[in-house]
């Protein structure tokens, strides 16, 4: 190497160093807001959240020196700020009990599916990775929250009667409701084929997932990544009751969720149009059209599966 070239390299090196040092002063805002009301869970569960999630999902962020170096810091600050906006264990008191339950379930779900903690973060914080034992601890905790007590007979009879009304479509409104994002209720789903059933262990409900012909054919031919336009999926939900003999019974109809595939029309929500209709009155769910972002956010860990959880059973 000529001495001229050596000088050029040295010069570039010094300029980059100065640039890097100067950049350290360009710091996006990362506040430490007060803890208003922390989530209350058993210590072993809290320990897992603290280790793997708190840096981005609490006001008790503890950054390592490596996180504080710009440009890494820019990325970190962005993740902490958006992470807190989505889920904040330090401001748990700002959620209603129902929201708390949903968020907790969502958190465990993201962790179980490997979607959280973020892969880029886990790479530089290996201790944040969740072990099989951690996941078991989280799942056991959720399972323990379920109420396994037998329901009284009058409740069972009343809810069973509602289930029969659902089957016979006796009480459905004649004029079909439309969700705030323009998706109408689709009464046809009762005639679609069930793709699978599931009973979510943590909240005492039973559910059946149905698919229209396009969806069923796509599932048969393994064309579900992505699902074709026109595919429709429905998830119907009932309460699950336990009688005094310990038998599980289908109770009242709770709601039906719809996902309608149209890659272009619903591009902003993963190519799926979401809608939910509650109770036999089929009341559209959501206060604003933004309700669908709640749906897609929880379905996001299944991104590689075109946002669908259900693995269809083969017909
Ligand atoms: C490095 C930062 C970081 C860590 C660590 C992290 N998350 Fe996240 N999390 C985010 C960000 C950012 C989002 C917003 C969506 C996105 O960008 O993926 C998010 C979104 C979520 C959501 C979706 C919430 C909603 O309503 O949209 C859940 C649930 C979640 N994280 C749970 C967890 C859990 C549980 C852990 C620990 C096991 C964890 N996260 C660890 C950054 C993080
Ligand atoms: C708390 C997380 C969560 C939220 C919020 C959520 N879903 Fe889901 N969804 C699931 C899970 C998990 C499944 C898989 C079936 C099961 O276990 O119930 C599912 C299944 C579905 C299915 C059947 C297809 C599939 O992906 O398996 C439809 C349709 C559906 N959801 C629609 C909706 C709609 C519409 C909304 C918003 C109004 C919504 N979901 C909000 C978690 C969620």
UniProtKB/TrEMBL annotation:
SUPFAM superfamilies: Cytochrome c
InterPro entries in alphabetical order: Cyt_c-like_dom (IPR009056), Cyt_c-like_dom_sf (IPR036909), Cytochrome_P460 (IPR032033), Cytochrome_P460_sp (IPR038142), Haem-bd (IPR025992)
Coiled-coil intervals, chain numbering: none
Record flagged with keyword Transcription regulation: no
Transmembrane segments annotated in the record for this chain: 7-26
The entry's keywords: Heme, Iron, Membrane, Metal-binding, Transmembrane, Transmembrane helix
Location of the Cytochrome c domain: 40-146
Protein name: Heme-binding domain-containing protein
Annotated organism of origin: Mucilaginibacter aquariorum
